[in-house]
Amino acid sequence: MVVHVACNDVIDVTANWKSIPVVFGVLNPTNDSTFIRINKAYLNQNENDAQFANVSDSLFFDSLEVYIEEFENGNFTGNKIELMKINARQWGVDKDSGSFAYQSHFLYYTNYNFKETIFQENYVYRLTVKIIDNSNTNKSYYAETKSVGSITSTSPRFDRPPVFLNISDEGDFRILFSEAYNATTYDLVIRMKYDEYLKDNPSQKEAKILSYTGQSGVIGNPKGGDINALSFPGASYYNFLESSLEANSKIEREIKGFDVIIIGGDQQLSTYIEVSKPSIGIIQKRPEYTNIVGGRGVFGSKFERRYENIGVNPDMLKRLRDNEKTEKLNF
To answer: Which of 38, 92, 192, 288 is least buried, going by the fewest C-beta atoms within 10 A?
Structure first.
């Protein structure tokens, strides 16, 4: 469920030419910046639709009013958050070249601190996208999402230092955690931060990060507070390292620490991800899902609990050096 801004333009080959917004946005109270992508459905049945894909005007609206309203326990708080249109390339968010226009890539941005839902304080955020152009003057589209609450690891207690990560190549690595309000699905990500350098030039170190999704799609109770578990076979992590890193006798690697990230997503986000998975059956057509009233896409919420800069347990370091899968990676 790890979600990033990416190209996923929707084309309905049976529709007439019209300006329909395709929205993708995820609120996360642990982030200090929020980006929402809003594209335009660009099909024109009178011409070859492929020619429109590489024209920015066919993918982005000239003028939009985009804002989010905040509600606490059903009451409007008075906070109306206006989102600013930005050129994502100028912010360092590039888009790969291909069939779709990539020279200009626009997002809608705010640095508002969205609030997490806590006991007796249930926050709902309503997104409004108002199109202001010749074809759809002041036509508005809406979506709502419930803010996801906080997640806490209960075993191990990563919030009580000193703490060290110990993933064994035997048995399962397991984390118990307290579920969040309004979250229905959970992922676990292990992020290893390390320095890489040549043996004959140890002063020239390159800092790198390698992320591993240990488990995803674990179902939770949106009422929050229950104890749940995320786990994965420890051997799978060692297999992942073997396949992800080059075994080179000239290269040394030094682990600097780990981040353990538990992600809880709301029902909208969970459903959207589930129906977007590739079909593996005979029937290839997938059901469509959107919570954008009148448009397409998803507006959802998640919460990321990050336990950062956790040290490596000496036993794990020894296993990394001795295990046949990782012994040639030179940790």
So the answer is: 92
